[in-house]
Amino acid sequence: MTDPAISLIVPTFNESRNLPVLVERVAAALQGRTFEIIVVDDDSPDRTWEVAEGLAARFPVRVFRRIGKRGLSSAVVDGFAAAKGEALAVIDADLQHDPAVLPRLVDGLARCEAAVGTRYAGSGSTGEWGGARLALSRSATWSVRRLLGVPTSDPMSGFFAIRRSLFQRIAPLLQPRGYKILLEVLHRGRVSEVHEEPYTFAGRLHGESKLGTGVLLDCAAALWELRFGAILPLRFVKYCLVGLSGVGVQLLATHALRAIPDLRTADSRLATAIAIAIAMLSNYILDNVWTFRDVRHRGGRAVAIGILRFAAICGTGAVISWSVAQGARLATDGVMNIYFASLIGIAVATVWNYVLNRQFTWRSNG
Ligand code: GDD
Ligand code: MN
């Protein structure tokens, strides 16, 4: 069999009722062209993969049932990788995207490397969306365009087509996460012009959207990595935020400890030392469950070793912070403001702590 001209990727999660309708309409829209439909299903509890396999008897459908993997973007990338066509297209399974637009989308690839179904240009529209969702989507779209300068009116569209050559060029660069695969493709591929096809975003046929706050946060994170990741990795930003929270914890702990009569009369250095230990522990816990979540320590032994390493590194960090601050004062013959000198010390120590903790406490290379 010769390879199809078009490979249409359909990512699915619990779309068993929508998929048959979609496939039917796609087949009607693409009549007269050679195409394959690649359903990438993440082992849906409603057995969408089974429905898809059933459809394969009547339509050119291939099914990938991914076990133990979740995510729209990564499903699309896996679909692209398995595709045989010259045009690689993507459509949602819930019929919010109009299959009738597909031929024009694909034809757009004759002129541009990428073609995007857009809600925000020409006759395109977001259909029946209410105020809040429309405002959210519009502001997200606006910030994305400002930040990344992508050449499309609808960078978050899940309805698009790209040339096979574009995918092959950027495949090794993709870090698919969250929802915004098109954004990543255009950004990493440095695509300068796209063909746009307006369409109206319809209501979902059956079931409900999987786009929740978790997904939105994930997108914000992905956006940050794309735009600022090379200079300021998100992990480092998180690490700094945790460090900042530690300052608050230490002040609160000092305050609380001083309320204990015995401690108040005793050497105030003891209260400070205990407060520092509490802040360090709180930082470790937050870093373990948030900053380094992907490589976090689990179980008593791993956590105990982790705390020791963390404390050792932060301890040397404190010495460095102090030395740098003193050094800066000395180098300027004491002219430099003591607070400013301390800030320089803290900045140097923060980078030191981060690099070493990433390397030795959590052994992460990313
Ligand atoms: N394989 C797989 N894995 N598919 C998924 C997953 C997943 O984890 N999550 C969602 N899907 C599939 C759905 O089954 C559907 O076919 C498609 O991806 C879109 O998911 P929806 O849950 O319907 O998303 P939406 O309607 O909220 O969002 C749509 O509009 C956004 C713009 O507002 C999508 O087209 C987004 O890509 C788009 O950014
Ligand atoms: Mn949808």
Record the SSE blueprint.
Blueprint: E1 6-12, H1 19-29, E2 35-41, H2 48-55, E3 61-65, H3 72-82, E4 87-90, H4 102-107, E5 114-118, H5 131-148, E6 160-163, H6 164-170, H7 181-188, E7 194-198, H8 213-228, H9 234-258, H10 261-265, H11 268-291, H12 300-331, H13 338-361
Parallel strand pairs: 1-2, 1-4, 2-3, 5-7
Antiparallel strand pairs: 4-6, 5-6
Helix pairs in contact: 9-11, 12-13
The structure holds guanosine-5'-diphosphate-alpha-D-mannose (GDD) and manganese (II) ion.
Manganese (II) ion (MN) binds next to loops.
What does this structure look like?
The protein has 366 residues and is an alpha/beta fold. It has two domains: 6-228, Spore Coat Polysaccharide Biosynthesis Protein SpsA, Chain A (Alpha-Beta Complex), CATH 3.90.550; 234-365. 53% of the residues lie in helices and 10% in strands. The chain is built from 13 helices and seven strands. It has helices at residues 19-29, 48-55, 72-82, 102-107, 131-148, 164-170, 181-188, 213-228, 234-258, 261-265, 268-291, 300-331, 338-361; strands spanning 6-12, 35-41, 61-65, 87-90, 114-118, 160-163, 194-198. Strands 3-2-1-4-6-5-7 form a seven-stranded mixed sheet, with helices on both faces. Helix 9 runs antiparallel to helix 11 (268-291) and helix 12 (300-331) runs antiparallel to helix 13 (338-361). The longest helix has 32 residues, at 300-331. It starts with 5 loop residues before the first strand and ends in a 5-residue tail after the last helix. The model has no long low-confidence stretch (mean pLDDT 90). Manganese (II) ion is lined by residues 92, 94, 96, 204, 209.
